[in-house]
Amino acid sequence: MELFSFLNLHLWRPAAMIWFAQLLLLLLLVQENRTVVGATSNYLIGLGSYDITGPAADVNMMGYANMDQTASGVHFRLRARAFIVSEPQGNCILFVNLDACMASQLVTIKVLERLKTRYGDLYTDKNVAISGIHTHAGPGGYLQYVVYIVTSLGFVRQSFDALVDGIEQSIIQAHENLRPGSIFVNTGELLDAGVNRSPSAYLNNPTAERNKYKYDVDKEMTLLKFVDDEWGPVGSFNWFATHGTSMSRTNGLISGDNKGAAARFMEDWFDQTNAGSTFSKASESSEVPRRVSNIIPIVHEKHHELLELAASFKSSPGRPATKFMSMARRVRSALRLADRPRFVSAYCQTNCGDVSPNVLGAFCRDTGLPCDFNHSTCGGKNELCYGRGPGYPDEFESTRIIGERQFKKAVDLFNKASEQLAGKVDYRHTYLDFSKLEVTIPKQGGGTEVVKTCPAAMGFAFAAGTTDGPGAFDFKQGDSQGNAFWKLVRDLLKTPDKEQVDCQQPKPILLDTGEMKEPYDWAPSILPIQILRIGQLVILTVPGEFTTMSGRRLRDAVKAVLTSSTGQFNGNVHVVIAGLSNTYSQYITTFEEYEIQRYEGASTLFGPHTLSAYIQEFKKLATALASGQPVQQGPQPPDLLDKQISLLAPVVLDATPIGKKFGDVCKDVPKNSTFKRGDTVTVVFWSACPRNDLMTEGTFALVEVLQGKDAWIPVYDDDDFCLRFIWSRPSKFSARSQATLEWRIPETAAAGVYRIRHFGAAKSLLGSIKHFTGSSSAFVVA
């Protein structure tokens, strides 16, 4: 179906009535940009973004598989960010980047069903890709296979719905924003945002192959810059390899980790550097921006006058609020958007399998010495071996630093992007049963042989975890033998047969997940692979985490096919891997890395020839793409929604102490207090469970500044790195709870009178939900 004919009159239009002087300025600015860029639009482009934060209480977080790590507040919000690129009267592709641990087959299926209802055959599994950034600080329970939802006590409908709804809304925005525009690509090295966490496995790759590369992780960032013909730059998406594990396995605050932080920094940077003009060129500065640009004037009153003014505003008791009040008050409220597309910036994941953001290395917590090189243990045990981020021991600071490093590199690439994408928009997609693929590989001594992939299985080293988040008990990385006791435990669930044991060698099987079917499938077998093309850019979407060298081999294989095709790419092609896309199937190592059986090898589900299978099948897709030939769709993955089991208890009732109301302050700022930049302001409110209302596109926390004598203006909310919403209850089954709001005053905060405000929703015994708000006493920032 042609996008042009579908859109017709639905293209987004700016407001028709503007002042003549503004119109003249706009025309001059547009002409200036066209002169600078020197670009002729050849695509329709549209971008969108929507909140997918999900439940901020009680739900186990996805990534570390730590049952004690449950959500208890918000560090900053999670978003789905989408771009659509279309030929004016031809093919289109849709790419969605999620601030989530990974994509989910079930989420993908349900999003596609909604797109089918809304747009017909315009967006299908063939041209839609959904990819996760791999934060380990988002709510879990949204995948459909048993092994990925054990720690979340099964399926969590709120997590699932937040993702499906948010992805759909981001796509609707992108579709409605489709307008003529151009896309530019740029690449560059970022040296200090990732290290190899399994170097002993990497070193098992052939010496000649390793000698081709300067580093044992990929250091290249690839960035797309989207430029609307009328509005100028409207977004950027980039791909860079580093794990979303700057936040630790004990963190309870929902966070986009380093990539989510980088996205927030860049969107704020663009809004600030372009404030006040419709179409100003991006600033050369890449400093992390303050929140609210120039809408808040610096207050010039003397300090004692500020104190007197602040003293007149005492904490307000909790009072009823509307569901939409927090949406209207949040700093980036959609209700206050200008009549132009909002800038969207996404930091996408690629082959991050063995890449850690904890760049200082791994050390033993008891001795401070480096961990054992081969097994990442301390005195033979893995529990004490942890990687250290650049802000050690402060994980929030490490998250900021790694995010800021990616942000600064992206701004540099964005400002200097000059290579324009030109050529076809195209795609190829198929489903494959990875439990029994026949793979032709080179044979030692010459010739070829046919081998097979295996049903999914996880090795003993999987349970050892990594230096980003070690496991428990006596498991360790690099274990190719297993343990008799744990084999007995394994056999209570499923004893692997000889064929499976032989197929997975040298992996000792801990969980034979591919052959475990009760109460339903424990692991996937049918996986999607996909190629998206925009001119000379090719995106390989893969349903897992490729290690550094496995990603290099896949990119090189596809690039060789494409550059050898007649007239398609003329030798110029950018190939990027979009990891953790469309569904999730854990890791993909090289054959040589698999032999070492560190965490990544033990988590390579389909056996030692998994990478060879991917390369073989992607070469087929690339050949079809280059020759214009179709590919078979393959077997459909299952939809297991109706089989899901959820053991997470619902919210029954919220309560406060006698004489207190929801939203009342129970710990206020000190009387007549003055804070300096860099200080932390803490206020505690009587609150209710955040699962009652996710505050989607709203906020639980707000910092307001006094403008004039009585106007409170929002300046920071729970989507800000400096403001944390921390929720707690005195005991697991208590109906009472508190919200602690912590504001770390930025160095760029204006002097003035401030207050902190909380929004929430409480559930009665009868099930009704009542929204409330409350605010602290005012205080001075000098």
From TrEMBL:
The keyword Metal-binding applies. It is an enzyme of class 3 (hydrolase). The keyword Isomerase does not apply. InterPro entries: Ceramidase_alk, NCDase_C_sf, NEUT/ALK_ceramidase_C, NEUT/ALK_ceramidase_N. Its EC number is 3.5.1.23. One of its GO terms (biological process) is sphingosine biosynthetic process. This is Neutral ceramidase. Residues 43-616 form the Neutral/alkaline non-lysosomal ceramidase N-terminal domain. Keywords: Hydrolase, Lipid metabolism, Metal-binding, Signal, Sphingolipid metabolism, Zinc. Residues 618-781 form the Neutral/alkaline non-lysosomal ceramidase C-terminal domain. Binds 1 zinc ion per subunit. Zn(2+) binds at residues 134, 243, 545, 587. It comes from the Eukaryota. GO terms for molecular function: metal ion binding; N-acylsphingosine amidohydrolase activity. The active site is at 356 (nucleophile). One of its GO terms (cellular component) is Golgi apparatus. Residues 1-35 form the signal peptide. Its cofactor is Zn(2+). It catalyses: an N-acylsphing-4-enine + H2O = sphing-4-enine + a fatty acid. Belongs to the neutral ceramidase family.
